[in-house]
Model the fold of this input.
Amino acid sequence: MTGTQIAKVVFSLDKKRRSTLTRPNRNSPRSYVLKLTPSKLPRGKHTVTAVVTFSSATKAAPRTLKTTFLNSRVCRGVTPEGPAG
Done:
């Protein structure tokens, strides 16, 4: 998420609040980022939601952005025909 008139961004993972940012991340002056470690999450489909609230000067309504991802186990040494070796 990037922008200049952002007052805060509330990130949620699977409808549970994970982080509220009121200023950009340190490495990028305009980026609001939620870092996740997929290996620490249960397998399956997950939804990340960001509710962006803009500064009062913009008079813009808050926006909700969603994305989903599938966290699955990586199988090594398995080919479409069956186990390798």
Summary: The first strand starts at residue 6 and ends at 13. Strands lie at 6-13, 16-21, 44-54, 63-71, 78-79, 82-83. The mean pLDDT is 85. The chain has no helices and six strands.
